[in-house]
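Recall the central idea of this unit: under ordinary conditions, the amino acid sequence of a chain determines the structure it adopts. In this exercise we apply that idea directly, starting from the sequence alone.
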Amino acid sequence: MTNSTEKQIEHFNRIASEYYNARQNPRSSLLYSKIWETVFSNKLFKDLKAPLNVLDAMCGFANGYDILKCNLKTDFCYSGFDYSEEMVNYASQRNPSLRLFVCDILNYSEEETYDIILLIGGLHHVYASAGQAVSNISKALKPGGFFINFEPTNNNFLWKWIRNRIYKKNVIFDAETEKAFTINELHTITQKNNLKAIDELYPGLLAYVLWYNPDAFPSLNIGSLSFVSTFCKLESNLWRTFFARYFSFATLTVYKKLKSPPQ
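Accordingly, the structure predicted from this sequence is:
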């Protein structure tokens, strides 16, 4: 275990309660639901055969289970792990029937293989070792399986500067060990691990700034739920555009594991 990983574990064990409470915000939940509804509306997921074996890597509070339960039309068997014992404890209390365990993604290895692996906002917490993390994930994914990754990204200098200031000033983040990627950096890592991007959304626009992380900009977390819902629905029309790619604070990519390594 690296020093940066140990620091992240300590950080999340310390803020687990605050982190969980912030993410129960109804405006954040509305945006969250719209993002994942848009992802799973892709016809890629229409013909999946049950039962699916699913892994939620760096699962936090096992939000991945809620996402799949709402959006997959197929029965699935869920497993999740996180390096924060406090996060896993919270997740186990919420869903005691789920298979949840404590594990560092940099040391993750098991014989079980999966049809879908989720990694939601995790890689930037192990930025310096992201290649090893993705390698471990790819080994656990069945050929033809889907890796769904949602990450903070910087694709222009101004956004990078803003995010770095937020990380330094907000206690919910750890500026010394967290760092966002560019989209090209993410694709370089995944391509090396036999993963091909087949769908990509850029939902980190104004709605994301206002409502996705209530603990990042608490003063901006305002507006009626009907307004938030309407705004998110309208903004979602931009999420697959070149404009959004450049200006988005986050990127959600669906990768497919190739059946043979690229030549």
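DSSP finds ten helices and seven strands in the chain.
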